[in-house]
């Protein structure tokens, strides 16, 4: 289905007559391009959100990983834990 945008203009003619000028413009391609652009912007926003979320989740895990080997090394140097 095509989308047309019509512009109607009128002008007086002889006597009581009126001339009407109708100019139609096909806006189908423009509408499709606008829809694609909006979809791309939505996907870019979701990507940015996902990257930020992954960063926030990864930050505490890095701290835990960095301190984990140190904690294990300290516990090994103290000897076995009593049962």
TrEMBL record:
InterPro entries: HisK_dim/P_dom, HisK_dim/P_sf
Positions with biased composition (Low complexity): 67-83
Top EC category: transferase
E.C. code: 2.7.13.3
UniProt-annotated stretches for the region Disordered: 60-83
GO molecular function, one term: phosphorelay sensor kinase activity
Catalytic activity: ATP + protein L-histidine = ADP + protein N-phospho-L-histidine
Source organism, top-level taxon: Bacteria
Protein name according to UniProt: histidine kinase
Organism: Nannocystis pusilla
């Amino acid at each position: 289905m095509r989308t047309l945008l019509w512009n109607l203009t009128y002008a007086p003619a002889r006597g009581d007559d009126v001339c009407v000028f109708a100019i139609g413009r096909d806006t189908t391609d423009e509408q499709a391009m606008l829809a694609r652009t909006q979809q791309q912007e939505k996907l870019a926003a979701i990507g940015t959100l996902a990257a930020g979320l992954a960063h926030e989740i990864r930050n505490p895990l890095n701290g835990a990983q960095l301190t984990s080997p140190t904690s294990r090394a300290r516990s090994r140097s103290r000897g076995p834990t009593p049962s």
